[in-house]
Amino acid sequence: MRKLQNNELDRLTPEEYQKTDKNPIVIVLDNVRSLLNIGSIFRTADAFKVSAVFLCGITGTPPHREINKTALGAAEVVPWEYFSETTNAIAGLRKKGFKILSIEQAEGSTDLAAYEFEPGMKYAIVFGHEINGVSQEVLDMSDVCIEIPQFGTKHSFNISVAAGIVLWEVNNGVKGVKA
Q: What local confidence, expressed as pLDDT, does residue 82 receive?
């Protein structure tokens, strides 16, 4: 087995990426405070070809040195929009036919592994503040609250880790892939 070099990975150029069809997924960041987490989410969004990242409230926006540190250029190719209020972003996405999924621990939440993603459905996936999570106001506007099962002593995943886990599941679900 030999490790592949970057030039052997057959990745899209930024120009090719801009022209390619994106997955019907929008990531919504509800008051995410860490610029490093924001950058990591841009990088994950690039990997899964999401349609856009919506940055809301106190969430930082590119260009920023700390975002760029973890995004590694992804913030320059993944479309993004800023909203001062997350609820305005959610309302706009709902009007465009997106199903709103908040990633949070809440009464009546659905286990990520049990959720049936529908091929062809448009999804807006909301991730919240690192300490306070998704706001109750946004949860109230959500169609579904999804929880990632955890088995250790901590109460949550880092938001960038949670985004990777969830986007993997959503990507497989919208493509009709089952593990």
A: 98
Contact status, residue 160 vs residue 41, Cβ threshold 8 Å: yes
Structure tokens at 78: 């993944």
Domain assignment present for 128: yes
CATH of the domain at 67: 3.40.1280.10
Residue 172 in this model has a pLDDT that exceeds 90: no
User: Sheet of 144-147: strands edge to edge?
Assistant: 80-83, 50-56, 23-30, 123-128, 99-103, 144-147, 110-111
The total of other beta-carbon atoms located within 10 Å of residue 112's CB is 19
Over residues 51-105, the pLDDT tens digits come to 999 999 999 999 999 999 999 999 999 999 999 999 999 999 999 999 999 999 9
Domain of 136?
A: 21-174
The residues near 111 (Cβ < 8 Å, ≥ 6 apart) are 146, 147, 149
- Which two structure tokens, joined as six digits, stand for 5? 């070099």
- C-beta separation of 37 from 13 below 8 A: no
pTM score of the predicted model:
0.94
Does residue 177 carry a pLDDT above 60?
no
Which residue from 126, 137, 130 is spatially nearest to 103, judged by alpha carbons?
126
